[in-house]
Amino acid sequence: MVNIAPRETQDLNLMEDEAFRAHVRQWIEANYPADLRNPPKRLHWDENKPWYFKLAEKGWLCPGWPRQFGGLGLAPAKQIIFTEEIERYGCARTNDHGIVMVGPLLINHGTPAQQEYFLPKILSGEHIWCQGYSEPNAGSDLAALRTEAVLDGDHYIVNGQKIWTTLATDANWCFLLVRTDKNAKKQEGISFLLVDMATPGITVKPIINLEYHDEFCEVFFDNVRVPAKNLVGTPNRGWDMAKALLSFERIYLGSPRLSAYAFTRLRQLAERMGVWDDAAFQETYGKLRLDLEDLKSLYGTFVEKLRRGETLGPDVSMLKIFQTELFQRITDTMLEIAGENAGLLEPMEGNRNLNPTGLYIQARPATIYGGSNEIQRNILSKNVLGLPG
Amino acid sequence: MSQALDDRSESIRMIRDSAGAVAPRGGDTKRVRALRFTNPGFDKGVFAQMGELGWIGLAVSEDAGGAGLGMSEAVALAEEIGAGLAPEPLIPAMLSARLLAAAEDKALLAPLLEGGKVVLTAWQEKADTLAVPGTSDAPRVFVPMAAGADAFLLPVREGNRIALLALDAAGADVALEKTMDGGNVGTLRADLSRAARVADDIGAVVEQALDEAALATAGHMLGLMEKAFEMTLAYLRTRQQFGRIIGTFQSLQHRAADLKVHIALTRAAVESAAAALDAGATGAVRQAAVSKAKHRAAESGLLVLRQCIQLHGGIGYTDEYDVGMYLRRGMVIANQYGSATLHRRRFMALAPEDVE
Q1: Which of A251, B175, B264, B296 is most buried by a 10 A CB count?
Q2: For the domain that residue A375 is a member of, what is the CATH number?
Q3: Partner residue opposite A289 with nearest CB, options B266, B268, B348
Q4: Cβ contacts (< 8 Å) between B75 and chain A: which residues?
Q5: Percent of chain B with pLDDT over 90
Q6: How many domains, in total, are found in chain A?
């Protein structure tokens, strides 16, 4: 736990953009652990927490939260700069579900008691959250979820199973979508519950993925008693809140940072493999480069909307589709030029920057998670192009 | 030229609105169809109207008689012209206006800006190039809508400078070829002894004007893409097969979603390049921005236009149905002012490596 008292007193919104950028950049470079830049895997809490606490101490953990809730209250334009600098330096994503999901959820829909209890514990790092959304039979079709919560006096009794719960082994709290009305239409019987992971009846099992990493987990709920006061908002009205939280994910997943990172590694690999000057490689490389540049331009148009304080519409799905598929095409090219190194488990020559297999395999789930690209195309087709259902 | 952003979005909106006069967005192609394979292949009255609306001198300074606007307005206008399939050589005329304004040549500039005289620049000596060698005795090829020219401008090398000469079209040796969309291009074999001198040293302006024409052409392509895609969506929403509206088939929905992504990428590339030029980009920065936009427009443009034919099925392959007119225009402009490959190579040769 940290003392978060020496909060940034100056209103950073008053700084000129470029001065603010320099301020953030300088601080990140002085405080982010160099050996954790662009980590090849999602970091666990024990690796991540020194950085989390640094941010917390500085008062920069929650740049977007209003100041009265302990955030920095940054205006959208400044938040964008903040994120750009974090991405530019290759800082690892923290265990950020509390910051980007639970915080905004409670600030918008929580009771004063919930806000008072939970928000400070996110800011101090006492509570690390995981997201209980997907289920074995509710993946792309999330609203089909069946984990149920039945009211029993002043508690809900929760039974069911969640899956693909990111870093659940690190979390001590879970925000959970549960079915509270089995007779309503599937979107209309869902509620939001906040669950202490130490409650009896909860079992967490890591899933080993194709990277041999244990980032995702299964979480089982067996007669878990959750205080009714931990329900957020109105019973059976959790779906709209859940969907709103996912819009963060779609712009995050559409950021060019992963493709840009892979692209720099592609060049290093091409030079190492001696194909850099090959005309066929240069054609492919040029096409990928322009795809990346145009993705940056398109991303810029969405960022510009955020800067103006607008809410993003369903067309943000375009970014997720193009970014994740470009990331894959770049890593496909890496694998193709890597020769037999394409099959090696570890980075080539002990050099983390020459890691075609690692990036290739990491690029695979990008088109699946956060709403598969097929779902994103359904969204575009129905909600943007107006094609019939 | 430096206008506040709000001001700019207002001028762009006004330009778009005014375009409806010449290129009805409702999609009536009667005028365009009637002009195909005629001589000169476009309507000089409409060209004059474009002059009256201030379009030919859109990016020419107000001092020189233009509208004093920039590339953001020019690409918006080119997009509307593309969506309406107007065959008038507006982009080549804007290029000529840029050169004449720089040369401070009032004699040809004034009638061109008014739309009373069609002045076309015969700069090109081979296919797929942006280079202007200015070889004095080289035939000048692919002059768009040359059948309607009243005068030609010719960049001609003199030592290490490029001079600009003007030649009356009457009596000039112009060999015409028909283009896929019903227009024409000409090969000019100029008798320079008949030409008048307009400027002594205009090489840098020619390069800039060609970049602007390439970017405007990318905007024109964007207009074709948007309109053809709009027609295709309307078709997907109404056409029935197997007792169902074909737009309910997921394979077609996903294809449409992908085409939308390509259109969005093209718009982002074109509009960001226009903003860069309006912010004063010069040299390699300008060239890289233009190449990025023209590459995307040529590449994604033809992809979208040919997929619009496919999504229509057999009716899309008929001359009678309008969607094919967009593909045919796309084929004519895709490589004008540089193909996707040319611009990709130029971008890669110029662009700073963005490597951490």
Answers
A1: B296
A2: 1.20.140.10
A3: B348
A4: none
A5: 92
A6: 3
Cis before B40 (ω within 30): yes
Option in B261, B268, B296 nearest A300 (CB):
B268
Q: A157: which strand partners?
A: A150, A225
Question: Residue B55 burial by CB count (10 A; 0-12/13-18/19+): exposed, middle or buried?
Answer: buried
What CA–CA distance (Å, rounded) separates B61 from B98?
Answer: 9
Q: Please, which pLDDT band fits residue B1 given cuts at 50, 70 and 90?
A: very low
- Joined tokens for residue B9: 């979005």
- Please state, in angstroms and rounded to a whole number, the distance separating the CA atoms of residues A93 and A48: 8
What angle is formed at CA A151 by the lines to CA A146 and CA A155, rounded to 5 degrees?
115
Domain residue spans in chain B? 204-350
Alpha helices in chain B, H assignment, sequence order: 5-19, 30-35, 44-52, 71-83, 90-102, 106-114, 203-238, 250-278, 283-312, 323-333, 340-350
Residues A365 and A268 placed together within one structural domain of the fold: yes
Could you tell me how many CB contacts below 8 A there are between chain A and chain B? 96
Smallest Cβ–Cβ distance between A387 and the set B256, B264, B355 belongs to B256
pLDDT recorded at residue B26: 76
- What pLDDT is attached to residue B2? 40
How far apart, in whole angstroms, are the C-alpha atoms of residue B238 and residue A206? Answer: 49
Provide the shortest C-alpha distance from residue B283 to chain A (in Å). 19
Q: Which of A188, A218, A249, A325 is catalytic?
A: A249
pLDDT digits (tens, 9 = 90+) for B111-152: 999 999 999 999 999 999 999 999 999 999 999 999 999 999
Q: Which residues of B touch A260 (CB under 8 A)?
A: 354
The CATH class of the B204-350 domain is mainly alpha
Q: Does B265 sit within 8 Å of A315, measured CB to CB?
A: no
Please measure the distance between the N-terminal and C-terminal CA atoms of chain B and give it in whole angstroms: 35
CB B97 within 8 A of CB B60: yes
- The token pair at A82 is 């903040």
Closest CA to B179 of B220, B145, B152, B149: B145
A50 contact partners, CB below 8 Å, separation of at least 6: A33
Residues A261 and A226 in one domain: no
pTM: 0.91
Domain end point (choices A78, A94, A110): A94
B344 and A287 in contact by Cβ < 8 A? yes
> pLDDT tier at B23 (50, 70, 90 boundaries)?
confident
Contact A321 B345 (CB under 8 A): no
Cβ atoms of residues A147 and A137 within 8 Å: no
Among B245, B261, B344, whose Cβ lies nearest the Cβ of A388? B245
**CB atoms B247 and A387 under 8 Å:** yes
Is residue A88 a part of any domain in this protein? yes
Complex confidence, ipTM: 0.90
Over residues B56-74, the mean pLDDT reads: 95
pLDDT, averaged across chain B: 95
Segment B248-277, tens digit of pLDDT: 999 999 999 999 999 999 999 999 999 999
**Which residue stretches of chain A have pLDDT < 50?**
1-6
Task: Tell me which chain A residue has its CA closest to the CA of residue B345.
Answer: A286
* pLDDT at residue B8 tops 70: yes
pLDDT digits (tens, 9 = 90+) for A202-261: 999 999 999 899 999 999 999 999 999 999 999 999 998 988 787 667 788 899 999 999
Task: Give catalytic status of residue A249 as yes or no.
Answer: yes
Q: What is the DSSP code string of A110-128?
A: --HHHHHHHHHHHHTTS--
| Residue A121 covered by a domain | no
Query: Which residues of B lie inside 8 Å of A (Cβ-Cβ)?
Result: 233, 236-237, 245, 247-248, 250, 252-254, 256-258, 260-261, 264-269, 271-272, 292, 295-296, 344-345, 347-348, 351, 353-356
Q: Which value, to the nearest 10 degrees, does the dihedral of the CA atoms of residues B250, B255, B260, B266 take?
A: 170
pLDDT for residue B238 is more than 70: yes
